[in-house]
Amino acid sequence: MTATILLTPPVADRIPSSSPPRLVLAPTDAVPALIDGAWWPRSRDLAAELPALIDTLDPLWGRITRVTVNPTFWPVIPRKVPVHGHVVHVGWFAAEQDPHKLLLLSYTVGRWDLLVIPPETEPATAARLMAMATDPSRSLTATGLIEEAECGPALRPSPAAATAPHREVNLPAGAVRP
């Protein structure tokens, strides 16, 4: 497996995503699980998708400094991604990291694992995956969740997922942070 790594152009030369990230996070008081939430990017362009995601997560989880992905589903992996006020380093692990997981690291708070829902996923399936990723009764890996969701429409999130609190994060682009 080879991964293409490109240097990211300066912020002024890049067109940022104008849409807020499609993201759901497990509640802050939830028992630690294999997945801390789900992210449904609009494309497979990390340089375009990561700034909005990280800009949303920074105030919630502390400054994100590093992201890792599995190159299986990302055709180009930038080494660095400029985000408002800082640069995030991007790395990749082919065998060591689940291909459907994004790992985020922060110096202040720690590590988070997000299920990455493929951009081409149908909205109903993506909604089901988002509920499953924040379901406190499930203990599947990111790939396990994707495989379970592909079983078909008969599969539904558990009753605990329907009633469990989760945080949907969908902030408008350009929102002012405290």
Short note summarizing the structure:
This protein has four helices and ten strands. With 178 residues, it is of the alpha/beta class.
List strands and helices in order, with pairings.
Blueprint: E1 4-6, E2 23-25, E3 37-39, H1 46-61, E4 64-69, E5 76-78, E6 80-83, E7 86-92, E8 101-106, E9 110-116, H2 123-133, H3 142-149, H4 159-163, E10 167-169
Parallel strand pairs: 1-5, 3-9, 4-7
Antiparallel strand pairs: 2-3, 2-10, 4-8, 6-7, 8-9
Helix pairs in contact: 2-3
Structure overview:
- The protein has 178 residues and is of the alpha/beta class.
- It is 22% helix and 25% strand.
- The chain has helices at residues 46-61, 123-133, 142-149, 159-163, and strands at residues 4-6, 23-25, 37-39, 64-69, 76-78, 80-83, 86-92, 101-106, 110-116, 167-169.
